[in-house]
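PROTEIN DESIGN WORKSHEET
SECTION A - STRUCTURE
LENGTH: 210
TOKENS:
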């Protein structure tokens, strides 16, 4: 694929017609195989699936314009999320000196479910990296969460510790490290540690890129 013109890209939610292409891209981007049921999740209400597209130029032998996916992000919203709960408790401990005695006590005794959003996968095609597309996919996910899942204040993910590019990318996008999880991934029969990164999304995301 030639270097693309950023004015020609657009973002939209993924649908059933995009699944085959999404699968091929995941085979290219990730060292593990995802099951068919993984891709069917794109259609679920609690999954935010956003793609970045460009249209192929019509040529005489193929006059129809075709949409091509150049980046995609899949995130799952969990209404009662363990990690989001852990982050929220950590935040409450840090700010407890600012709370009144009564609200501090309330925060200790309430076990209200804490919703969180988990990035399952994010990828951009090789030829289109370092153009800001990954960042825009994150921003768009945050915008959808802020609009459609207002109670959700945490976006998080795991990255295998050797994927330094991805770690740098998330840190650049203001994700913080929560912890290292040992042997989180098994890739070709070998275990690998993962870094758990999260971002507070209670502040509004930049304007829509749709
Ligand atoms: C990680 C990934 C999604 C980043 O997408 P991208 O569109 O290239 O990212 P952006 O252009 O928005 O990068 C934003 C910032 O992240 C950092 N970054 C991204 N790629 C980097 C690289 N190869 N080396 C160093 N820093 C990098 C930079 O700070 C960059 O800003 P800059 O270009 O102004 O310096 C892409 O590299 C990818 O698809 N990798 C393969 C799949 C993967 O590992 N996914 C993540 C795990 S789910």
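SECTION B - SEQUENCE
RESIDUE ASSIGNMENT:
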């Amino acid at each position: 694929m030639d270097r693309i013109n950023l004015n020609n890209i657009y973002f939209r939610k993924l649908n059933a017609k995009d699944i085959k292409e999404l699968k091929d891209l995941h085979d290219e981007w990730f060292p593990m195989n995802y099951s068919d049921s993984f891709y069917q999740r794109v259609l679920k209400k609690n999954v935010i699936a956003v793609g970045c597209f460009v249209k192929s130029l019509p040529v005489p032998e193929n006059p129809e314009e075709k949409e091509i996916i150049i980046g995609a992000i899949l995130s799952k919203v969990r209404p009662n999320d363990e990690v989001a709960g852990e982050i929220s408790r950590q935040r409450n401990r840090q700010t407890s000196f600012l709370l009144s005695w009564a609200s501090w006590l309330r925060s200790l005794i309430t076990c209200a479910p804490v919703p969180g959003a988990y990035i399952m996968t994010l990828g951009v095609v090789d030829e289109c990296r370092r153009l800001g597309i990954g960042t825009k996919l994150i921003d768009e996910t945050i915008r959808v969460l802020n609009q459609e899942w207002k109670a959700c204040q945490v976006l998080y993910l795991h990255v295998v510790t050797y994927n330094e590019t991805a770690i740098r990318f998330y840190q650049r996008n203001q994700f913080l490290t929560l912890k290292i999880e040992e042997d989180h991934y098994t890739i070709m029969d070998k275990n690998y540690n993962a870094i758990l990164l999260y971002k507070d999304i209670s502040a509004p995301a930049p304007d829509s890129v749709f």
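SECTION C - NOTES
The chain has a mean pLDDT of 89.
The longest helix spans residues 133-148.
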